[in-house]
Amino acid sequence: MATNQIIKVLENLITDVPENRGVAPMKILMVGAEVYPYASVGGYAMVLNYLSRALAAKGHDVRVFMPKFGFIDKGTQFDLETVIEGLRVPTDDPSEPYLICNVKVHRTSAGVMTYFLENMEYYEKRANVYGYVDDAVRWALLSRGALEFIRTGMFIPDIIHTHDWHTSVLCDYVNRNYRDDDILNDISTVLTIHSMGHQGMFNHRHVSELDYDDGRSSVAALLSDRINKQNFLRRGILYADMLTTVSKTYAKEILTPEYGECLDKLLLEVRSKLVGIVNGLNNVDFNPSTDPLLAKNFDIHTLPNRVENKYALQDALGLPIKQDALVVGMLGRLDGQKGTDLAIKTMRHVLKDFNVQFVQVGGGDGGLAEQLRGLHAEFPTKVGIHPYPNFSNLPRLMFGGSDVMLFPSRFEPCGIVQMEAMRYGSIPIVRDIGGLADTVTAFNSITQEGTGLKFNDFNEFALFGQIVRAIELFQHKKLWNTLQKNAMSTDFSWSVRAQDYEKVYKAAQALHRKAFTRGVLDLD
Ligand code: GLC
């Protein structure tokens, strides 16, 4: 089948489904490493939860499959029930042919059942989701465990939806190891790429020719050393029936060497099955008019109430209480991806000359935390930092109390925090890339349209320019309030996104049925 014919079929499937035509209910199994609220490190966990719920609300039978980490049912926070004991997951190693697991379930009121793969050694004993030398084994076990779970017949989905390198290897197993399995054969696979930045347990940017994994051989035996050198993400890209990533702009960017992380050429070849769908935001869970974590609730009609949150934020971070200072916030993982270093460098110039305060919340990279401490030491009355994760009310106070928030990312597949900020009337200053480009529109002071401020180049001049613009706009209260109202009224609801995923699932089924994937990508 020629590539242009495949593109035609996909275009018809993806563009010709009328918005309001109901899609027949499907059975979907989401397989992922972290899922909110059970285990939540980043945006990935949120997407798995909210997307599943949005699809369930459309009438689909959506279930989630994840590891049973030791911390999940401590203190009976979640009431888990064992549904399978002694699930044998093959290792492909004759000396230890199976790893034995259990499957537990949590039934929620939101209509999405979550299954947990239980294994003492690989999940139960671990305090964290990521960061172990045997992570490749842990995610391969989860992927293969999900397939063995399906083979028991307890839940046979139409679609398996995998996420990032952790579970993308499932697409390889299903195409190769289970090729002749009557149950698994009929199931279509979708892989969502949340980030190209991690592809396996090795640095994909510095792979020697000897270690290069082209994805043609079988996945290595579960307990072998070789599994650490395999590129699970590449394998997912090769074998998934459909690929998505979390914004339209990132879907284009990853076809280039700048953002493709060494897989851009492969992605270019399979681009006919790649679709960008921007992430959403749950409007009920993130609502400034009802949020109990705020000092004072507000909406677009009661914006003056917002200042109480600004005072609470200044107080919490040890800053002088000042209404007229522009509070510039930064929230989230301390990570090179997020451009915290650029923000620090730029703020050093801004803080010297303007009536501005800088507040930061979020932990991670120790070097970046050190730079933040340095900035605080330089401007003790203008900088308030909390360089650790905060699961209490600081993030909400930042959304509801800061005036602007910075998003100077090096790359950003989607980004969720800028949507949260907008919903609470904090104006995002974003680099015009990836999901930041797709979720924020640049404010035009003449037409008074737009929801934030944008810059292009990753340098302090570009970021400085937009911060100074914010300082200026902030003086014009009417204009500023219009900008805030525009931002707060943007609709990021998951329900629209779920419709796009329905189309992707249909396309995956069509491709799978016609065995396009195997025809085009048969590498055995
Ligand atoms: C990753 C990406 C982020 C995205 C999130 C959820 O963390 O870095 O941009 O929003 O996944 O898809």
Ligands: alpha-D-glucopyranose
The name of the CATH topology of the largest domain is Rossmann fold
Q: What is the structural class?
A: alpha/beta
Total domains, how many? 2
Q: What is the gyration radius calculated from CA atoms? A: 24 Å
Query: Helicity level, as a percent range?
Result: 25-40%
Function: Synthesizes alpha-1,4-glucan chains using ADP-glucose.
Protein name: Glycogen synthase
InterPro entries: Glyco_trans_1, GS/SS, Starch_synth_cat_dom
Keywords: Glycogen biosynthesis, Glycosyltransferase, Transferase
Considering the chains and any ligands shown, give keywords for the structure.
524 residues; alpha/beta; Rossmann fold; 2 domains; nine-stranded mixed sheet; six-stranded parallel sheet; 18 helices; 15 strands; disordered N terminus; disordered C terminus; binds alpha-D-glucopyranose
